[in-house]
Fold this protein.
Amino acid sequence: MSDIRLEGVTKRYGTFAAADSVDLSVTQGEFVTILGPSGSGKTTLLSLISGLNRPTAGRIFIGGRDVTNATAQERNIGLVFQSYALFPHMTVLENVLFPLGVRKIGGAEANRLARDALKLVRLDGLEERRPSQLSGGQQQRVALARAIVFKPDILLLDEPLGALDRKLREELQVELKQLQRTLGVTTLLVTHDQEEALSLSDRIMVLDKGRTQQVAAPTEAYLRPANRFVAEFLGIANFVGLPDGGQGLVRPERVRLSANGAANGSGKPAKVVEAIYLGQMVRYHLALEGAQSIVAAVPFLGTAHAPGEQVMVSWDSADIWPVT
Amino acid sequence: MKRRSFVAAAAALPAVSILSGTARAQSKEIRMIESGGASGDSIQKGYIDPLFKKTGIKVVRESPSSLGKLRALVESGQTSTTLFELGSGIVLQAKKLGLIEKVDWAAVNPAAMFPEAKNEYGFGYQYFSTIMAWRKGVKEPQNFTEFFDSKAFPGKRCLPDYPHYCLPFALQATGVPIDKLFPLDVDTAFKKLNEVKKDVAVWWKAGAQPPQLMKDNEVQYSICWSGRVVGDPAFGVNFAGGKSDLSFIAVVKGSKPEDKAAAWKLFYEMSLAENQAKAAEVISYTGPSPELDALLPKDKLWQFPTSKQNKAVQYFENAEWWAENGEAVNKKWEAFKLSL
Amino acid sequence: MRTAGRPAPRGPEDDDAMTRSNGFSFIAPLLVLMVVAFNAPIVYMLGLAFWEKGRGFTLEHYEGLAETPVYLRVLGNTMRIALIATIANVVIGYPLAHWMRSLGSRARMFAIALVVLPFWVSILVRTYAWIVVLGNGGLVNRFLQWSGLTDEPVSFLYNELGVTIGMANVLLPFLVLPLFAAMVRIDDRLLQAAASLGAPPRTIFWKVYFPLTLPALAAGALLVFILCLGFYVTPAVLGGGRVPMISNLLDTLINQIPRWEQASAISTILLIVTLLIFAAYRRLDRKASA
Ligand SMILES: Nc1ncnc2c1ncn2[C@@H]1O[C@H](COP(=O)(O)OP(=O)(O)O)[C@@H](O)[C@H]1O
Ligand SMILES: [Mg+2]
């Protein structure tokens, strides 16, 4: 188990910087998510950390050791690819045995480790199948088992759930979290799905165009984003004017709604444009005066405002976070 | 080509029904499969063109010819091809297999011919010789004893990859005169070949190989077809002990009478010395007329298989003996080849 | 998979049956053509050795082969040469295809064109071109002698070496093209995955890359081997007639002597050997992909 430190890590393809002076510090056993839109350099970053790629500039430390120029072989990192990258000519068991064989672990010992890893990802019984005979979720678990079976210092997961359907994804998110806790392995997960990032990790790093935008705990980044990009990327953002002329962020959950002319009817009048039921919540799209629109998420308590209805909206000034 | 012959056949049909019984009916176009190359061109210039001029009969050529092709033709029952070129040994085989028709020599009514050319089953139209040749500048052998003596005549050899070519020459090297070659003493011949095989760089399958190899100086001496080397200043040749052989044109079994009638007309043209002289302008092989020498250029008489000075020093292929013993000898030949 | 108890909808099934029968009626003429044009002559050829006009069934031609095994020895020699040529092809072709995979797309096209080029050159011209290059007075020997590496010309031609070189040249595309296609299909991420799991380059090659190319390599090598068995021109010219091959023997037996029955018996054995090799390959292949 080990910690990761990136210092000014840069990867250029020609003049284009896929990763641009990235700094990151991950403590031992921590679960950090790298979040960013497609093409923001997430995979590039993982390939640099895993040693499949060399940075153009900057240094990488694992467990305090400078591994910037070490090969993948010398790093002992478990990497799960976006596409799983299972060996098609090997069975599930052979896939999981592969990293053990490389480490000269064989025989009964290897078999025991491999079967344990498969049990951990709940794939026992499928040892003799080929990857092509498995569902996407099962393939994903094989990739996971293969990446953890050799007790890596670090686990890197590149959009591990990206290709799965929603229900399966939510199920596996929980499993992944539990697994990480059980193993206590330092984990870096890459995703472009903000919900996944918020629900899984101890901290998140938001990435855009190869540059770090913010590194913070999920709630911190959600409520107090470092900039407009982070604010907008992490969920729905309402921007309101501030007295000093700047802009402030109010999350939908912090917006209050009351019927027009109600007793405590402070705030601004608005018209309901759309009301979307999300189970326990209703999401309102509202039009304020001056064509400004605002989104509010309100607990559903049996009745809701209909589109066209006039309401009053308000929020606490303490819930406004200034952004630049 | 196919369509034209079909049209011709269709056009001939009503004529047959009207004139049936009169053997005079005769096709305006027949087809021939010959061995191709300059030899085919010589047939065109020497015989087909004169025939067309005189009678309007067209002969369409196609190549190459092989016994396998002939057998396939006959066994498939087709009658579109009338004439087929065959080597002297193959004529015997084809006759035995019933693949060719007898020649109606009375209908052909040929001019004077060497007797061996006037075969019951074919027209021996072209004499060709297999002789020793060398690259100019090396020591020149006078006979096959010298040819195979690589100590006195150093250099690489190129020999035919065919037992019926090699064995009689090897036997001559042991002192057997050309009139005593057959029945062939196969074992003595092989013994000689075993002695000289280390000097043989290439065993040729295609007649184009030996002159090319001599030009490239890959080999210095070869046994090859006379037509490929005579007249080329790069080579010396000697007909002594050479093999004289005949190519035949035969009539495919089951040919229609009117096609055969046209074929006899062509055979007649082939027997004329003046036509044979035209053919010899294209290739240094000669027709079967004893009067041909007089019509050939005097300075080139030494190049031709049948000119008096050459015919006398060569032996004539013994096709009967080979038909009898060919397969057994071939087995030994393959074993010999495996020992190389 | 249909769930038990739930009646299957009829429509799609009928559709299926219809397209199937339609499909068959479409290819039926082609099938008949194939059978008539290719298979019937083969059966006829095979039958020649067993059946003689007026005598009926006979095994004497096979007995003849067993008694004078020289023809079988030629067959064995052919197999040996074919094997050597195939191995030479693999040794040259595999690295070549692997190298081509690493090229950029433009360079790849160029390399493919170069590999395929021999297809467009007549086999005779190509074979004679080798004489110009490798002959005693050829480019290579002139260079060797000029540079003082040898005094005497080296005999590249008119021996088994010449045949092997010629065959390898002619048949290289048959091996390289399928192999190259298979190599290009290999996802780089598989190799990266192996590296990330701690495998050194050697292990990545032998445990991941090579096994993934093995089916194409086997298929290509098999194809080359079978084509080698039937080679005629190259052994005759570049082997200087010193390397007896079965196709030359068959030519003699068909067109010279002629003993079609004997040729048929040899061909049958050749066909059976080829089919056996093919069957063994299929077995291995199925095992590998099971
Ligand atoms: N080998 C490469 N050569 C050139 N550009 C590359 C290469 N690999 C990645 N890139 C570019 O770097 C950027 C980041 O890629 P990547 O790290 O795969 O993004 P992400 O995983 O966040 O979607 C993309 O614009 C991509 O086109
Ligand atoms: Mg990616």
